[in-house]
Amino acid sequence: MSLGNERSDRPGGGSQASKASQAQASSRDKRPGANFQSLLRLLPYAKPFRLNFIGVMVLVIIFNATNVLQPWLVKVAIDRDLSTVNPNVRGLVFISLLYVGSVVVGVVANYFQIIILQFSGQSIIRTIRLELFRHIERQSMSFFDTNAIGRLVTNVSSDTETVSQFFTNFFLSMIRDGLSLVMIIVAMFELNGRIAGDAMILIPLLFVISLLFRKQLRRRYQTTRTRLSNIVAFLAENLAGVRIIQIFHQERRQARHFDRLNNAHREANVAEYQLSVIFNRTFELLGNAAVAAVVWIGGTAVLHHAILFGTLYAFISYIRQFFQPINSITQQWNTLQSSMVAADRIGQVLMVEPAVEDDPKPVPVHDERIEGRIEFRDVSFGYKPDRPVLRHIDFTVEPGQMIGVVGATGAGKSSIMSLLTRFYDPLEGDIRIDGIDIRKMTQVDLHRIVGLIQQDVYLFTGTIADNIRIFRKEISDEAVIEAAHMVGAHEMISRLPKGYQTPLYGKGANLSMGERQLIAFARIVALGPRILILDEATASLDSQTEELVSTGLQAVSHNRTTLVIAHRLATIRDADLILVLDKGRIVERGTHESLLALGGLYADLHAKSGIEYEPEANVHPMHKV
Ligand SMILES: Nc1ncnc2c1ncn2[C@@H]1O[C@H](COP(=O)(O)OP(=O)(O)OP(=O)(O)O)[C@@H](O)[C@H]1O
């Protein structure tokens, strides 16, 4: 005659996933703002399911009623039909049928109650998760600067899961267990007010014991989770750095450290179970003691003919049922706490508006008519307003030109790129494409015009062809192959076992750096933006790949305004204009030759880069006189 909550010696009960998320939710940053309001703010998501919740309530009432009815039926059978004075076999059969009927109704009600509630809870979470995902995707880069990716992943995955506990477990328990308790109490008072009154002493006692234990259980549970996280973090770091560990012969030391973490986890886990078992058995002990007390008090009453035997039976059954809802309700305290923390964190993310937003009245842009003229007009920028990283940047790139931006590390090269793509907005000045302020275009239009290849070429899980067309179905296979041909990637791709259908794993780890660059070039040709920004990879390539990449670059920049953030000066030797940045300012500008002739910072960088620049250096040794 369980009320649907199976007893578990694991503290907290519930699924592993939910427990993990609850622990995470509670162990991470507990903001003072995490309160019931945070949860209430998520209530509108539940509104479309209000009929479902009402349905669940009705089903819960039916289910509880059948539970309370069953001992009562047995009581009637014993006292009315089994009494030796007036035995009634037909009545007995009728009661048995009613009993079976109530069990069947209870089971069916319970089934639908669980299914409807889970469906509603998970639907709510689905909506919240989708909104979070969309919201995060809409954010500007400054948002990602201040929000660790790991935290966002947790928001979308486990925080939402924790909140779902509120909509399912918490809601269900409050209704089901609260109602169940009330019904049992009413039934007991209905049977015998005196014995029922004595039994009421148990309620505060059970609540206090339960809450005290739960607090401790929660603490131990969190310790176990934290120690498990330590193991996972250590393992991840070790796997990532396995080469270094092997080269420096640190395997034993690392294994010892791992075992310490492992042991700490074992101890925490055993301690957690220990307390959990003590708690459950204490509860059971109290339950049995209560039954014994009822047998004693009720039995005496039976002997004195104060109550009938069936009433005593029903009392014993109700006392047994009595413990489950109290246990379950106190357990919800944890659920409520974790859900509030998780809901607060979700709310914090949902409240952030993107720093870069589209103009409410954007200028319509026809990208096919865009020529690709870029102007930076006295642009100043800082990731934090009081720390400028670009000052008074002023330059123009004519359509189809290639421009190189060079400078020491941290000079502000990538920041220029981030402004042109509107990952950030300038603090002062403006940036124009074909005379249109990019803040006046929608970001969708802008990103159709401006293509970007970042240092670390990002490849998605999928085939090479998928990666070239970035999952845009309207780009045909022929167009993909043509794009690859143009940048000189076709041969390399054809050599792969499955050609264009070769699957890429783990951000394209099965390709070399140069090969990834070529795929990125082909991607640009296939998508065809008028402007290309290339944040060149810092790692040096072998000379053969370097040649492939530079041929690819020539192809991809052909007829396209190209801005190269150059880490290798050789890449931009033929650029129409080179900007030399130093501490956020343009300190020199000109062509490769003119800058070398100037003998300033560029010439300096050039000398340090180790590239020989002698006109004769390009001449084949055989032709030297
Ligand atoms: N997201 C960011 N938040 C805060 N500061 C940043 C951020 N990105 C860059 N910076 C700072 O801005 C300055 C310019 O960085 P930027 O990445 O533009 O330089 P860079 O010339 O491209 O350097 P590198 O050649 O090393 O890539 C640096 O001082 C850097 O620390």
From TrEMBL:
Residues 374-608 form the ABC transporter domain. Residues 54-338 form the ABC transmembrane type-1 domain. It comes from the Bacteria. It is found in: Cell membrane. Pfam families: ABC_membrane, ABC_tran. Its main location: membrane. GO terms for molecular function: ABC-type oligopeptide transporter activity; ATP binding; ATP hydrolysis activity. The keyword Transmembrane applies. Residues 1-10 have a biased composition (Basic and acidic residues). Gene3D superfamilies: ABC transporter type 1, transmembrane domain, P-loop containing nucleotide triphosphate hydrolases. The keyword Ribosomal protein does not apply. The chain crosses the membrane at residues 51-73, 93-119, 166-189, 195-213, 289-316. Residues 1-31 are annotated as: Disordered. Coiled coil: none annotated. Keywords: ATP-binding, Cell membrane, Membrane, Nucleotide-binding, Transmembrane, Transmembrane helix, Transport. Residues 16-26 have a biased composition (Low complexity). It is a multi-pass membrane protein. InterPro entries: AAA+_ATPase (IPR003593), ABC1_TM_dom (IPR011527), ABC1_TM_sf (IPR036640), ABC_transporter-like_ATP-bd (IPR003439), P-loop_NTPase (IPR027417), Type_1_exporter (IPR039421). One of its GO terms (cellular component) is plasma membrane. PANTHER family: ATP-BINDING CASSETTE SUB-FAMILY B MEMBER 10, MITOCHONDRIAL, ATP-DEPENDENT PERMEASE MDL1, MITOCHONDRIAL. This is ABC transporter ATP-binding protein. It comes from Alicyclobacillus mengziensis. The lineage of its organism: Bacteria, Bacillati, Bacillota, Bacilli, Bacillales.
